[in-house]
Amino acid sequence: MRIFFLLASFWLAGTVLADSPGERTDPVAEADMKAAYIYNFGAFTEWPESNRISFNICVLGDDKIGRSLKRYEGKLISNRRVVVARLSSLAAIADCQLLFIGDSEVHNLGRIAHELGHQPVLTVTDAPVLPQVGVVISLVGQRLAFEVNLDYCKRANLKPQSNLLRLAKSIRKSD
After folding, report:
1. Contact yes or no for 140/147 (Cβ under 8 A)
2. pTM for this structure?
3. Could you give the domains of the chain?
4. Half-sphere exposure of 174 toward its Cβ, with a 13 Å CA cutoff?
């Protein structure tokens, strides 16, 4: 059933966001679809053992995505209840399991990667980034394709499930 939900959300994203020439995409619908992707990225990743009670999805620098993610609060990822936190600074990023980094915070990617080190935090952004910057998943394009960086997954001890990797536009790895 989880695979069906993942596939359906990815298919719907392409359907909802595929504009006819001259039409504009509704920004609320786009934020909702990105939120669905972000939730599913967490759900379809194998996480290391943790004593945490909640699964913290944090948003840094994008209030639309933060508001859209609120609908996933209370759902389960890795047998823990999802809590969504909208952050205004980097102070609490180590308390996140999944960190979405908005456009306005992309200039902090190097600092975020340094502060997180090898902690199991899945970092996601929709801003254009260089492959060597510490982002695990990048949402790309208006049809919400995504790229996965396996080197950063390995560093953070995260294992994207094969059904997630099959849907990725590209997979980056050094091996």
Report:
1. yes
2. 0.82
3. 2-172 (3.40.50.2300)
4. 7
